[in-house]
User: Which sequence fits this backbone?
């Protein structure tokens, strides 16, 4: 099936710094990608929709200035957590819909962010 | 407001038996439902889906049933295998199809005992 990768798989940073997470569709093009966040023992919550060539669409309650999304190409979306704080520590997962073959959504392996 | 709910946080089943995972939703506009399997610190893996125009979809050991009037769907795994042990999420698509944003349930941890 289609493959979506994320980098890094885990990152530890100091409070106040910024962290960039990459999401790539490896064998298909994705004009849209989705960013989710999962806190321990909770569900995946959609944060935003990343659109290639246009601004991202954020879900209610998600700060767009804190979680910067850039869909640089048809295979790459990045999420930058700016001025990270301990409460931003979470598991961040991206997904990309594959429209040409299976017509479903594939998820990346996730990025574990720990803010000290 | 949790629009997709999985009321059983965990389920334990003997190997070879049937596993039944349940999911309820509140929004009647949802028209596509998916089940994902997830291991800790990994992304979800797609299992099976169903459109609201159907009431059953089968793929190997996995069958999903949809009861629109009750706003309820279930995933049946038979026979269950130890490798099926994971967290299972149901997800609903509010805008049609599997390629739009998804709303996830809270997950059910399935443990298949050898």
Assistant:
């Amino acid at each position: 099936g289609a493959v979506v990768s994320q980098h890094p798989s885990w990152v530890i940073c100091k409070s106040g710094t910024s962290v960039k997470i990459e999401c790539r569709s490896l064998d298909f093009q994705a004009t849209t990608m989705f960013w989710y966040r999962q806190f321990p023992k909770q569900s995946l919550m959609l944060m935003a929709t990343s659109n290639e060539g246009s601004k991202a669409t954020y879900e209610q309650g998600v700060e767009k200035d804190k979680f910067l999304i850039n869909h640089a190409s048809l295979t790459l979306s990045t999420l930058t957590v700016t001025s990270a704080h301990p409460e931003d520590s979470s598991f961040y997962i991206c997904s990309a819909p594959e429209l040409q073959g299976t017509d479903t959504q594939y998820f990346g392996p996730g990025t574990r962010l720990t803010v000290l | 407001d949790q629009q997709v709910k999985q009321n059983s946080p965990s389920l334990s089943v003997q190997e070879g038996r049937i596993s039944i995972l349940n999911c309820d939703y509140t929004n009647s506009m949802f028209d596509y439902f998916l089940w994902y399997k997830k291991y800790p610190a990994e992304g979800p893996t797609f299992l099976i889906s169903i459109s609201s125009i159907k009431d059953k979809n089968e793929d190997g050991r996995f069958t999903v049933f949809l009861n629109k009037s009750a706003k309820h769907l279930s995933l049946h795994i038979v026979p269950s295998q130890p490798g099926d042990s994971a967290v299972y999420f149901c997800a609903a698509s509010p805008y049609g199809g599997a390629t739009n944003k998804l709303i996830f349930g809270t997950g059910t941890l399935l443990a298949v005992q050898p």
The radius of gyration of chain B is 13 Å.
